[in-house]
Amino acid sequence: MRGRFGPDSGVASGALPGVYVVVAVDSNANTLRLRDEAGRTADVYVSERMMDLDSLKPGDEVEVDFAVPGPGSTRLEAAVIWKLQP
Question: What is the pLDDT of residues 4-59, one digit of tens each?
């Protein structure tokens, strides 16, 4: 299933689990910029304990399920993430 970011993709609500394309990797900040099937992008925080972001590159596909944001949080955070094999 293809994932989808909500219209306010910078906000932690509205992101649906599914498959996204990696646009950019920032290992220092533990974030991925991901693109959904409609072309919308958002930065997603990934815990360093969950995945070695250096193993990803632009163009890779990942399946992501998002964490429920805490009160007042606007950060998108991966609860589960894995790289899809070509």
Answer: 776 655 545 568 889 999 999 999 999 999 999 999 999 999 999 999 999 999 99
Residue 81 CA to residue 76 CA, distance in Å, equals 13
Region class of 12: left (phi > 0), else alpha (psi between -120 and 50), else beta: alpha
What's at 12, amino acid-wise? Answer: A
Are 53 and 46 a contacting pair, CB within 8 Å?
yes
Three-state DSSP at 53 gives helix
Q: How much is the pTM?
A: 0.86
Largest CA distance in the chain: 38
d(CA 27, CA 2): 24
How far is Cα 40 from Cα 4, in angstroms, rounded to an integer? 8
